[in-house]
Amino acid sequence: MIKTEKILHLKSSRGRKVRVVREHYLREHVPCYSTLCQAGCANDGKVLSGEVTHYVVPDAGVLRDYLEVLEFRELQGIVLTQTACHSVQHSRGRRQYNRLRGLLKDPRYDCVLFANEFQKYSYCPREKGETQDRWQTRCVYHAAVWYHDHLTGLKPVVMITEDQAALAEYSSLHCGVYVLSTQDYLRTFWPELLAAQELYSSIAQALQERGGEGSEREYVDHLPAEILEAGIKSGRFLQGTLSVNRHRAQHEAFLRMDASNKNTELNTDVLVCGGKNRNRGVHSDVVVVELLQRSEWMGRTTALTDQQGEEGSGEEAQSQPMPTGRVVGILQRNWRDYVVTFPPREDSQSQSRTSQRILAIPWDERIPKIRISTQQAETLQDHRVVVRMDSWESTSLYPSGHMVRVLGRVGELETEVQTILIENGIHLAPFSDAQLREMPVSSPERPWQVDPEQEASRRDLRESHLVFSIDPQGCEDVDDTLSVRSLGRERLELGVHIADVTHFVPEGDLTDLEACARATTYYLADRRYDMLPAVLSADLCSLLGGVDRYAVSVLWELDSHTLEVQSVWYGRSIIRSCYQLHYELAQSLLEGEGGQVPELAQIEPSERDARLARLTQDLETLTRIARHLRARRDKGGALELEGVEVKAQLDEEGNITSLVPRQPLEVHETVAECMIFANHWVAVKIQESFPQQALLRHHPPPRQQVFSQLIDSAKARGFSIDTRSNQSLAESLALAQDPQDPQFNRLLRMMATQAMSNALYFCTGTCPRDQYYHYGLALDRYTHFTSPIRRYADIIVHRLLIAAISLDKGVGPGKPRANNKELEEVAHQINNKNRAAQRAQKQSTELFQCLYFRDKDPQTDPGCLSDAIVYAIRANGMLVFVPQYGLKGAVYVRSREGLVLRLRRDGGCEWDSGSVHRYPDHISTSTSSGTSTFQLFNHITVRISVQASRCHSDSLHLEVVSNKPHQPSQPQPSQPQPSQPQPKGRSQLVQEVLLQAEASQRAQDERAQGPRLSREERQFCQTARPSLYSVLEEVRELALQTLAL
Ligand SMILES: [Zn+2]
User: Fold this and answer.
1) Which of 59, 642, 878, 919 yields a CA-CA distance of 20 to 30 A from 372?
2) The pLDDT of residue 1031
3) What does the alpha-carbon distance between residue 707 and residue 761 come to, in Å, rounded to a whole number?
């Protein structure tokens, strides 16, 4: 080893230049991390593939400015030098450096780190008078040459640089080592990767523009890092996340405080008013705020604005002054990809013929306009485009950014769906070839078979147990199956058998990493994106009837009479499901109405009857056990939050996004109860085996004040709701029935659900024992074990359970790999992804609702009139729920112009001058011609129309037509009651919209002109569009999942 000195010129955080001398050791052997290595390097871990045409070595400048381009997974064989990486660390900060490290760690990217500065023959010391940039470029070039020679010229090596001098000097110096500009490189080697080329030019342009910026300050400079830090320590400054009010995005933002704050007197948010005080803070950034003088404090605006719906408290104008501050510094930018629309032609300020600077308008109202330069401002009118923000200087009124890619035309289904995914941070590239190569083969020619080794090591239940599944009709991915059998007179055995996904997905495989990144299967209104490739989710891990499958089983031995658990067995098994039942069939067998069991169709009658009797008996036993389990949980205070006939879908805040009607079949509850039982027992097992590192799911008890709306509303109808415990809540909800109107109880349950927080995953080692409790299910420990095909949490839990079993046996590793901190991070990421998935599902439902109503004339189309129920009273209107379309929103009785709604004698409404009076259980308007009243929980008629928006999402607008229930003008005999939700309403809605979208797509294909669209437009679609029925069933299932907690 040779010792030398390395001299660095660094910049301190105050901008001072510092000269640092470091000892530097050189070695002969530094791993090259290439599979082609002939020299016997110690290449542990990730290595570069040999199946590429060349290797590419970006220099420091390229890595600094064009990292995004290198992040295209299509690019392969990338060698990152230590020199270039250090330069990124010093000049671009921790965030970009972490991205770089992520890239190097992630096996899905074909790139490695070569420690060129430790390699004796590739290191070159800096020469006197040489600039840092020049020296770094020279180092990278020497690294490229060494790499080429080290691999004995087996692969050409391309160095890419933006440095003109380097291009001239090095391009023909060494045979087999090419030096190209990034642009030439992309054009030569990746001509088909247009998206990368476009991204390159857009970044290049943004860099160029940034050079020529004005110097006049628009904002106060941010304070230096050490002053911010000291200020936070002393309590003078406050640190937190900036949250912009969507409805008053220009004016109002709040600081949501971190736990780290020293100023403990403040336990509210801090208001930040106006752009100057926000001082370039962007929604979700971590910022530092200084409080203003008390005399300058202001109140938040709380008047109901349009579209505000649920959120406004209904108090007029400004409330009490609250702590108010201004942003003095930014600790962390949490910028992401933003979908934007270009301004209309007349608004864009032309700068030159080839390039235009425009202010793009983000889809998310909370994000400021972004200044970008583009040559396509004209052609991309009416398109949605993805941009990234680069910087926000104090001299610029708006942040600057660059274009990443084009999504498609505004208003088209694909564009809008992709917009929803991107805005929720959901990235779903198709499964890569490398990932799919990890998958087992299963084709008609080479059917998958049970491995004899597995057969020997697993408990074989194929002959001994009658296993069956009960799922929605048409379900492809059967996660769970059940069995029940008698063990003599005194004992019963209940079995839950779950697909053994982790057998096929080893920890750390590409498929595992991708599944972890996705965290869940995504269900949108018209499609789904699977967490696992189809060969697993729809085939090998789907516990289909009549085929051998690996499973993880839990078998309980119960006392036949008391049904108390005597013992429990956990382990890997092989099963062959005998019957693949659907809910309706199972229920009809239970009720003695018979039914066609497909598996028995070909069997002779006497045998068939015997088998049917056995199956029916099993179903009955199962029902008996489930009733017992349910009754025991009910005693503990389990909540049935959703109505029996309706399941609500919720978003992250617990708002109801729609109601999914379903038949009230007991067998639903039976299956759900068995799954809850299995989840609970697995939770107990893994928590006891790994007290510090088990993944559980808890549901925190709600704060009492969130129930005020529920209590007040119920009181208006003469019912009292007791929210002191989950048990009293469940009991009082059950009593609050209006025999005249089944919707009343339903709405109360929705309001109760809405008031609660969501259940969350957590790691046992990071949470006090008394917080493990699951409030909604009334269980002391709970987790998710029963759906490993579509939830990553279940995959982790399966691994923990398998590790716990090995621990008991004293074999195998016995210990889960992740420590509790890592596990907590994964839990956090899964919680975030679940929230994103729910938000995306909600937004896609709203999208379909808007697309459905878009082409209807609200004045003439009878479909636009609907029954609605008032469920809350506000100062200037009411919140209503529309069962037919599963939507909710605000209706106003006072217009923005100050007119109030007056009911005519014929039941119609019109606007007039007058006043509004609000009471706990009704709201009334007074005009010269009388008083009109709207009662809480009454049915009224509303008109639904679309409020179109070019830059943001469209929204639905509701207005009162009459304070009487809706009477359809031509009653259809097939409709039960106007107030009943119609089971087919939503599916028809989705179908109609899809047909429209297809027709317009065809029309467009025929025209085949217009601006070039991005190739990625459709590539994210992975699942062939399944039948509408199965999609709706899945959405329904998901709703169950969400609420079943
Ligand atoms: Zn080597």
Assistant:
1) 59
2) 34
3) 24
Identify the bridge partners of residue 362 per DSSP, sorted by sequence position: 340
Place of tokens 């979908």: 339
**Calpha distance 920→505 (Å, rounded):** 56
The Å distance, Cα 160 to ligand 1 centre, comes to 22
Q: How far is Cα 200 from Cα 366, in angstroms, rounded to an integer?
A: 28
The residues that bridge with 887 in the sheet, in sequence order, are 882
CA of 150 to the centre of ligand 1 (A): 6
Tell me which residue of 151, 55, 157 sits closest to 112, measured CA to CA: 55
CA-to-CA distance for 593 and 179, rounded, in angstroms?
78
Task: Tell me, in angstroms, the distance from the centre of ligand 1 to residue 40's CA.
Answer: 6
Residue 94 burial (10 A CB sphere; 0-12, 13-18, 19+): exposed
Output DSSP code: residue 788.
Answer: T
**Cβ 645 vs Cβ 664: under 8 Å:** yes
Give residue 35 CA to ligand 1 midpoint distance, Å: 8
* Lowest mean pLDDT, pick from 330-339, 636-645, 780-789, 939-948: 636-645
Strands (E), 467-547: 467-471, 480-487, 491-499, 522-523, 528-529
For ligand 1, the distance from its centroid to the CA atom of residue 151, given in whole angstroms, is: 7
pLDDT tier, 862 (very low <50, low <70, confident <90, very high otherwise): confident
How many A from CA of 38 to the centre of ligand 1? 6
Which among 246, 245, 243, 266 has a CA at the least distance from the CA of 256?
243
Do the Cβ atoms of 880 and 888 come closer than 8 Å? yes
Cα(410)–Cα(407) distance, integer angstroms = 9
**Tokens of residue 405, six digits:** 């890619």
Q: State how beta strands 467-471 and 565-582 pair.
A: parallel
Residue with tokens 């059950």: 734
Rounded to the nearest whole angstrom, what is the distance from the C-alpha of residue 83 to the centroid of ligand 1? 19
Q: Could you tell me the distance, in angstroms and rounded to a whole number, from the CA of residue 39 to the centre of ligand 1?
A: 5
d(CA 548, CA 542): 10
Question: Which two three-digit tokens encode residue 407?
Answer: 């999504």
- pTM attached to this predicted model: 0.76
pLDDT value at position 648? Answer: 38
Nearest to 817 by CA among 798, 800, 792: 800
Contact assessment for residue 908 and residue 940, using Cβ atoms and an 8 Å cutoff: no
Distance 28 CA to ligand 1 centre (A): 11
Q: Distance (Å, rounded) from C-alpha 220 to C-alpha 83? A: 36
**Look-up: residue for tokens 């500009």?**
181
Burial of 568 per CB tally in 10 Å (0-12, 13-18, 19+): middle
CA dihedral 527, 424, 675, 1024 (to 10 degrees): 20
Ligand 1 mean position to 929 CA, how many Å?
Answer: 92
Choose among 50, 49, 83: nearest CA to 159: 83
Q: Any bridge partners for residue 932, and if so which?
A: 925
